[in-house]
Amino acid sequence: MAEEKKNSGKKRLIVGISGASGAILGIQLLKLLGQYPDWETHLIMTEGAKLTIRSETEYTVEQVAALADRTYEPQQIGASIASGTFRTEGMVILPCSMKTIAGIASGYCDNLLLRAADVTLKEKRKLVLAARECPLSAIHLRNMLTLTEAGAYIMPPVLSYYQHPQSIEDMNLHFLGKLLDKFDLEPAGYRRWGEGCSDYSNESNE
Questions:
Q1: Which end of the chain has fewer CB atoms surrounding its CB within 10 Å, N or C?
Q2: Could you give the CA distance from residue 187 to residue 171 in angstroms, rounded to a whole number?
């Protein structure tokens, strides 16, 4: 279990990686957050996430864990992040499987990832869920509507093209920039509409 320490004064963000495809996005998020010395990351990887990391990326689970300030196992249900008294800025689950979506939507907290998300909602902190599935069934959509009504942000890793990406990495960065914007963070290289991206405002309507 991660050793608990007194609050260092840093802003804390819980990062969850579930077993859905797209583990590299969670890894890149941790790398970006590592560039902010006043932020502290608390990472949970499910067993499915560990399998996906091994299958989809060149990283080991140990290397991913080393990117975070604190790492927890899903079965550590009594960890600090399972309590609302442990202050955080919120939580991101990236990628977020439909199983995880269903667990949070139903309040079924049988592991630390689900419990931490449940706490984030009940404390009315920001919960960002990068839902990863295609196509979506009616069950998926109902669960996501339930979470949206409860205050969560549903942010599927949708591609954007107006910033003229030259690589998959460019597309990933743009999505992560939009996600981090929910926490008032802006990674280097992130391009907003009208700020180095296409802008129709100066073009004729004719």
A1: C
A2: 13
Q: What is the pTM of this model?
A: 0.90
- Taking residue 121's Cβ as centre, other Cβ atoms within 10 Å add up to 18
Q: Outline where DSSP puts E strands in 64-183.
A: 70-72, 90-96, 126-131, 153-154
Whole-number Å distance between alpha carbons of 175 and 25: 9
Domains of the chain, CATH where assigned = 11-197 (3.40.50.1950)
Specify the amino acid at residue 28.
Q
pLDDT at 93 over 70: yes
pLDDT on residue 193 = 83
Per 3-state DSSP, what percentage of the chain is helix, strand, and coil (rounded to 5)?
Answer: 40, 15, 45
Return the closest-CA partner of residue 113 out of 31, 182, 49.
Answer: 49
Region at 130 (left for phi over 0; alpha for psi -120 to 50; beta for the rest): beta
Report which residue type is found at 200. Y
Query: Cα–Cα distance between 41 and 153 in angstroms, integer?
Result: 19
